[in-house]
């Protein structure tokens, strides 16, 4: 049988071999096509089409060296054939000889209008950083063949290299109209979620205003509304945690703050977790959370303050004093004026009570006055009265407590403190009147017995020896109130840490409109340029993308300069 086959092959003419080779080529049976073309070329080797077809078959078999030899033979015979040059360019491209490939493909593109050709030219242009040229080629490729969505996808990615989010978004949406399950769907969804999250800032700010006004239920509704728009709004869970803490629902508060942490591993959230764990009686857990917050950001005043209060209440005054020092030494640019005053006020009182140095009380007075000027609150008048009391100035302590009662006439703690000051001032009758007033407000058997015992002593001319408890045992719920720049900055960091450079780029663009310093502007431009490349890389890798560490470090440096590291 083999002998018959050999005889049969010898009897075949050149035309027979070419006919058979062409058949195999058309059918995509490239190895058979190569065999037949080689047989044909043994009989006649001056037809450039045969060499071209042989090169084409070898190209598809990934035998690029042999393919190059064959196409060179074709070009020797017909050097001006643009299709031969096109195939030669493709072969060089596959061999990794990009610049040589570009030369042949570029020349071929002047006469051949082929979507694959223009797409490859776009790929080469991207490789050598000629992005405008790449975009032109990709769009030409798509114009020639509107079914070539891959070329359009590549054009969208180049728009991201230019930082043109809008055009990239429109391009990807055009793809999704043709193929709803295209991989760019994830990118479009990412863009839309980021925009929704940015638009939620006004709602978040309104929620903060509601908390400030003690309208907690409406604040809660606002944060829930934000979470319907952006289920990963870590800051909304943070404020829900704050509200739960205010209502003393500490387990619920812990649940919310853990949700924030699961979305964004942030120093601010660990400090809040420390506050909540302490109130749940878990001192060790609280200390661990505060230390985690400090590890993430050594300039977190809330964490130092939490530790200072914790150790003060444990009676470990030296440790407490050291942590109050940390609060006072920390640069607090990121905080609101109100938060700065509150932290400094209580830390100075803490220093006075852990060191016995009364000078700290005088310094604290500046901050309590500042807070009273911001808000005529019974709390701040009470703290002012307490400071005067600790300084032995009962006259001004009395006036401060009276001012507190003008704002909140039925506050039991203020009435009790007022009565103590009256007793120490020798105004026993007024002290008795004040305690009697307390009895009319409070309907509690235990409390009534306590007050009755005090009244009995006063009426019998005996000292009660009562002292006003330190205000460090009644700290208001602390929470962060970021300005708009720090809101954007924290989200810039969150998105980049969570491997989403598109979100990071969008937030950085918003930050750019709020800064004026030339030094920072230059840094922003540099980071934007790198994020443009990161966005392109993200589209290339999608689920396998990881943020570049050097870019993360640059963003961290920017946040430090902006004073937004919490």
Word description of this protein:
This protein is mainly α. Among the domains are: 13-112, Tetratricopeptide repeat domain (Serine Threonine Protein Phosphatase 5, Tetratricopeptide repeat); 484-562, no CATH class. Helices cover 77% and strands 0% of the residues. It is built from 31 helices and no strands. It has helices spanning 2-11, 14-27, 30-43, 48-60, 64-77, 82-94, 98-109, 115-127, 131-144, 149-161, 165-178, 184-199, 201-212, 216-229, 234-246, 250-263, 267-279, 283-296, 301-314, 317-329, 337-355, 359-374, 378-390, 394-407, 412-424, 428-441, 445-459, 484-497, 501-512, 518-541, 549-562. Helix 13 (201-212) packs parallel to helix 15 and helix 14 runs antiparallel to helix 15. The protein is rod-shaped and about 140 Å long. The model has no long low-confidence stretch (mean pLDDT 94).
Please compute the radius of gyration using only Cα atoms.
38 Å
* Poorly predicted residue ranges: none
Largest beta-sheet characterization: none
Strand content: under 5%
CATH topology of the domain at 13-112: Serine Threonine Protein Phosphatase 5, Tetratricopeptide repeat
* CATH top-level class of the domain at 13-112: Mainly Alpha
Please give the number of β-strands: 0
CATH architecture assignment name of the domain at 13-112: Alpha Horseshoe
Sheet/helix structural class:
mainly alpha
Helix content: over 70%
- Give the N-to-C terminal Cα separation: 84 Å
């Amino acid at each position: 049988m083999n002998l018959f086959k050999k005889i049969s092959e010898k009897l075949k003419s050149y035309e027979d071999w070419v006919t058979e080779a062409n058949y195999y080529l058309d059918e995509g049976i490239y190895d058979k096509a190569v065999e037949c073309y080689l047989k044909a070329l043994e009989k006649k080797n001056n037809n450039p089409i045969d060499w071209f077809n042989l090169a084409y078959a070898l190209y598809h078999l990934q035998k690029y060296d042999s393919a190059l030899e064959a196409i060179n033979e074709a070009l020797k015979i017909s050097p001006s054939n643009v299709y031969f040059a096109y195939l030669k360019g493709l072969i060089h491209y596959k061999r990794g000889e990009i610049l040589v490939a570009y030369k042949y493909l570029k020349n071929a593109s002047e006469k051949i209008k082929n979507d694959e050709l223009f797409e490859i030219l776009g790929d080469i242009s991207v490789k050598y950083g000629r992005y405008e040229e790449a975009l032109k080629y990709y769009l030409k490729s798509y114009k020639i063949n509107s079914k070539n969505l891959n070329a359009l996808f590549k054009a969208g990615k180049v728009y991201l290299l230019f930082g043109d989010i809008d055009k990239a978004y429109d391009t990807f949406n055009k793809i999704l109209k043709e193929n709803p399950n295209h991989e760019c769907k994830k990118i479009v969804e990412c863009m839309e979620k980021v925009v929704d999250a940015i638009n939620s800032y006004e709602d978040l700010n309104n929620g903060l205003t509601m908390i400030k006004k003690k309208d907690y239920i409406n604040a809660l509704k606002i944060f829930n509304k934000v979470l319907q728009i952006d289920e990963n709004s870590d800051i909304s869970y943070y404020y829900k945690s704050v509200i739960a803490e205010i209502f003393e629902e500490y387990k619920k508060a812990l649940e919310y703050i853990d949700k924030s942490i699961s979305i964004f591993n942030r120093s601010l959230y660990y400090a809040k977790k420390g506050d909540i764990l302490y109130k749940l009686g878990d001192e060790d857990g609280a200390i661990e959370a505060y230390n985690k917050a400090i590890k993430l950001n050594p300039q977190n005043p809330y964490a130092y303050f939490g530790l200072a209060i914790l150790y003060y209440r444990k009676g470990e005054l030296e440790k407490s004093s050291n942590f109050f020092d940390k609060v006072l030494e920390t640069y607090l640019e990121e905080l609101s004026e109100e938060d700065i005053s509150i932290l400094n006020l209580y830390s100075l009182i803490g220093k006075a009570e852990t060191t016995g140095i009364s000078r700290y009380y005088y310094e604290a007075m500046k901050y309590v006055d500042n807070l009273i000027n911001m808000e005529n609150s019974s709390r701040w008048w009470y703290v002012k009265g307490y400071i005067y009391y600790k300084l032995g100035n009962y006259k001004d302590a009395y006036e401060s407590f009276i001012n507190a009662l003008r704002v909140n006439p039925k506050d039991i703690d203020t009435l009790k403190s007022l009565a103590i000051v009256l007793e120490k001032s020798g105004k026993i009758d007024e002290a008795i009147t004040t305690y009697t007033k307390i009895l009319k407000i409070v309907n509690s058997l235990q409390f009534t017995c306590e007050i009755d015992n005090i009244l009995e002593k006063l009426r019998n001319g005996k000292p009660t020896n009562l002292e006003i408890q330190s205000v460090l045992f009644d700290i208001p719920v602390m929470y962060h109130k970021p300005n708009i720049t720090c809101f954007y900055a924290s989200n810039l960091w969150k998105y980049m840490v969570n491997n989403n450079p598109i979100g990071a780029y969008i937030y950085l663009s918003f930050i750019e409109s709020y800064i004026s310093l030339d030094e920072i502007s230059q840094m922003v431009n540099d980071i934007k340029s790198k994020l443009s490349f990161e966005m392109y890389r993200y589209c290339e890798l999608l689920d396998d993308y990881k943020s570049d560490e050097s870019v993360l470090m640059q963003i961290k440096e920017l946040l430090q300069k902006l004073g937004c590291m919490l």
